[in-house]
Amino acid sequence: MSTHGGTAARARLAIDRWHFQHGPIDLIIGLDADPALSEGLIEAMWTRFERILPELVMDLPQLRRPAHERPRLQSPSGLAMLRACKPFADQRFITPMAAVAGAVADELLAPLRRERIRRCFINNGGDIALLLAPGADYRVGVWPQVGLDGAFTVTADMPVRGIATSGWRGRSFSLGIADSVTVLAADAAGADAAATLIANAVNCEHAAIVRAPADTLKDDTDLGSRLVTVDVPPLPPATVAQALARGRREAEYWQRRGLVHAAALFLQGRTEVLRPPGAESPFETLIPARAVPPLRATVPA
Hints:
The protein is of the alpha+beta class. It has six helices and 14 strands.
């Protein structure tokens, strides 16, 4: 996250869609509600949005500390990031920064839950917070690498209001080699944190994988000198399978603890899908790349 955010900007993309941008925070908002209500809600969201980045910048030194150290935070988004990461912090290294995109999306969506809205999404670079009234749903696209690989549907009766994706190809550093890992969870901040850890776990040792200390690539990283993935060449099928199996075990671990509803892991043309226990997997609706659904969920972040 840059400390030089510039001026916040917004634009209306369509009758029910808006673009908010401020420094590294880049949101697409879709709001399905009465037009008169929508205008007031968007104005309220914009007023709050303009303050989020400056607040997070003030918290940055603490946000880069490991979550188990209980960093002292002041901003609402920073506190939400810490809450999302705490359940993982006793078992894994994680800083609140792992949940930043999801937490911002959740925060802007939260006040809308008191309104009569059919549905709303806030997509922060691929990490998405959802609001769904009874009977509503969203179809979400899966982009594991370059082109659309499939889609799934989130319905109001599912315990899912957050979607997030992580991987070595994304905007943030990854310790693993996943092209992408998409997680469905109760909220976007929790999905963001879980996706980060599962993507880290999709990993293996291979001489051709290029890694470098994070702090040699970015001097203000929260990962210190931990090795992050720089490049992953084509790998032998057995190596790909081994890395995906490790990631699946990580996803299952967090699913058993109620932190992950479902997940899809992608690496070099292979996919591992973690179904929700006792329920049909939303990823069973993966479709060919010809059809383009409305929400682009899995821009790695």
